[in-house]
Design a protein that fits this description.
By secondary structure, this protein is an all-alpha fold. The protein has helices spanning 15-50, 65-74, 77-94, 100-125, 132-150, 162-178, 181-205, 213-227, 240-245. Helix 3 (77-94) packs parallel to helix 6 (162-178), helix 4 crosses helix 7 (181-205) and helix 6 (162-178) packs antiparallel against helix 7. The longest helix has 36 residues, at 15-50. The chain is globular and about 80 Å long. It binds zinc ion (2 copies). One zinc ion binds next to helix 4 and helix 5.
């Protein structure tokens, strides 16, 4: 093996050529920024068209599973999430066979879901604008969740908004395409988790009455969250987070919150 390296070319670019190169680079950057602005503008306009304000009616009008599924897919918001999940599934399939690591990733993410729901519900959806972080969370999601608590069956304020779905979806897509295949599995699981949350939450607010024991429990807990005390019963797709984190008391063990009918966690 040779110990000498190839002679390094030193930058002997004439000043005029260097200036031209910088100008070309600047023009390319400006073109890129303009393109980025145009794409962003187009996406924002498309999202605004997708996210029609309504009125979209009441979830409580659907009294069967079939009717609930029909309302879910005909509302403008859930199909955006379903499209993103389908895209992530296609990317994962294109990345090759599933292995043991994929199974570990999928099981781990399913196990984390109750705690993620719990933390997001308590820390972001019920954030208050009393601090800087609280104000940011309130603007992003707290205000919307407050409207949901004020009128729980109103489908105008139901579901994750397309803007957030597309933001999370874009990050998930980059991860799915640039990371190893298990990263694509994780991205897909994120989308599926969000879809499971959106569907379950909607179904709880429909007029469909639970039959199974597991669904009856989460149905009852979410209603207690709305109408008894918003500090408790924070899980939606399961109550594991509440059981393990101490927010699953018997109904009569906590007082009726003064804002239980509609709004935020009480101060303090
Ligand atoms: Zn709700
Ligand atoms: Zn809530």
């Amino acid at each position: 093996m040779s110990t000498t390296s190839a002679p390094v070319r030193t930058a002997a670019v004439p000043p005029r050529r260097a200036t031209l190169r910088r100008a070309t680079l600047r023009r390319a950057t400006l073109r890129g920024a303009t393109l980025h602005r145009i794409v962003l503008h187009g996406v924002t306009a498309a999202v605004a068209r997708l996210d029609q304000p309504g009125p979209h009616g009441r979830a409580s009008d659907a009294t069967t599973l079939r009717a609930a599924a029909g309302r879910f897919v005909s509302h403008p918001r859930p199909p955006v999430l379903m499209g993103v999940v389908a895209g992530l599934a296609a990317v994962r399939l294109a990345r090759g066979r599933f292995g043991r690591t994929d199974a570990v990733v999928a099981v781990s993410m399913a196990a984390a879901q109750p705690f993620v729901e719990w933390a997001v519900h308590r820390g972001i959806l019920h954030a208050r604008p009393g601090s800087r972080a609280g104000a940011v969370c309130y603007r992003i999601a707290g205000w919307g969740h407050e409207q949901h608590h004020r009128d729980p069956t109103n489908m105008d304020t139901m579901f994750v908004r397309p803007q957030e779905v597309l933001d999370v979806g874009a990050v998930a897509l980059v991860v799915a395409l640039s990371g190893p295949p298990p990263a694509a599995t994780a991205a897909l699981c994120t989308g599926l988790g969000l879809l499971a949350y959106d569907w379950t939450h909607f179904l709880i607010h429909t007029g469909y009455r639970p039959r199974g024991r597991v669904y009856r429990r989460i149905w009852r807990n979410h209603r207690l969250h709305h109408f008894r005390n918003e500090r408790y019963w924070l899980g939606v797709t399961s109550n594991i987070g509440d059981v393990l984190l101490g927010t699953n008391p018997p109904r009569d063990a906590v007082p009726v919150s003064p804002t239980a009918a509609y709004a935020h966690l009480p101060a303090g």
